[in-house]
Amino acid sequence: MHRPSEISKGRFRQPGIRVYCFPTGPVLVNYRNGHVQCLLPVAAALWRDAAATGRLDLIPPVLATRLLNTGLLTRTVAPIPWAAPLTAKAATASWGSVEHRAGALRPAPTGTAPAAATALATVLALKRLGSPRATMHRLTTALRRAVSTCRQPATHDQVQAAVLAVRRAGWFSPARSACLEESAAAVLLLATRRMSATWCHGVAPDPIRLHAWVQTDNGAPAAEPPSTLAYTAALTIGARHQHQL
Questions:
Q1: On the CB side of 163, how many CA atoms lie within 13 Å of its CA?
Q2: CB neighbour burial string for 163-178, b if at least 16 within 10 angstroms, e if fewer
Q3: Is residue 237 within 8 Å of residue 141, measured between CB atoms?
Q4: Element (H, E) at 86
Q5: For residue range 13-69, what is the model confidence (pLDDT) as tens digits?
Q6: Total-model pTM
Q7: How many CB atoms lie within 10 A of CB 156?
Q8: What gap in Å lies between CA 185 and CA 167, rounded to an integer?
Q9: Phi, psi of 87 (to 5 degrees)
């Protein structure tokens, strides 16, 4: 446990963290280990002040200690300012039945089934091999390396076909195959043909929920419902203007 005096005098940095600022309060996402932390609205202003200086002098010691203990902040030799919170999209009124359907349809068979299954298996292996504290880091590193080999952007139809092929492979997977695994595998599948797509990860409010999806270089989501537009993307990989950590 860090004593208050140590916290107020220390220097800190933000290692691979994105902060989404919603009206209900900020949400911190650690893209090294996938840890998510929701804070009260007043913490958004405190975080913004600390980000400008790299110090935690104005943050209550209890909150500062929690941020340190969860790895959302780490110590440095000298103060290093970090990125201010991203302004996220506010939630609209909803009964909760429009954004997400109560079931999922099995995609039709495609000719890329073996390659899609291999891409999905690669993603699952990346998640399981190594320390759980660096799962997201391993996955995002692999995606960056994959898209760096691509020579041309995939069309919307090509991206959609890749997503649906992976989604069908997921029906037969004994391990978890949700949006994170499917979207990452779709990018890897396209990369085997040297075609690029943009991997996105974002957060939506009310309730706080995370989502990963794939879109074309012009920003059009592929094989996604309209509700995906409610998410604020903080991390994109493969885009011409990437949000780097």
A1: 25
A2: bbbbbbbbeebeeebe
A3: no
A4: strand 86-87
A5: 445 777 777 777 778 888 877 778 777 777 777 877 888 887 777 678 887 787 777
A6: 0.70
A7: 16
A8: 9
A9: -75, 115
Instruction: Give the type of residue at 174.
Output: P
- Pick from 213, 196, 195: which is nearest to 204 by CA? 213
Nearest-angstrom CA–CA distance, 177 and 225: 18
Burial of residue 84 (CB within 10 Å: 0-12, 13-18, 19+) is: middle
Instruction: Residue 162: count other Cβ atoms within 10 Å of its Cβ.
Output: 32
DSSP-assigned letters across all residues of 28-39: EEETTT--EEE-
Q: Which amino acid is at 88?
A: A
Pairing of strands 232-237, 36-38: unpaired
148 backbone dihedrals φ, ψ, rounded to 5°? -70, -15
Six token digits for residue 116: 């899609």
Structure tokens at 212: 């990963």
Q: How far apart are CA 37 and CA 28, in angstroms?
A: 5
The vertex-179 CA angle with 16 and 220, nearest 5°, equals: 85
Sign of the Cα torsion 188, 179, 29, 225 reads: positive
pLDDT in tens, 56-109: 776 788 877 877 777 777 777 777 777 777 777 766 544 443 444 434 556 666
For residue 188 the two structure tokens come to 């890897």
Do 245 and 18 contact (CB within 8 A), yes or no? yes
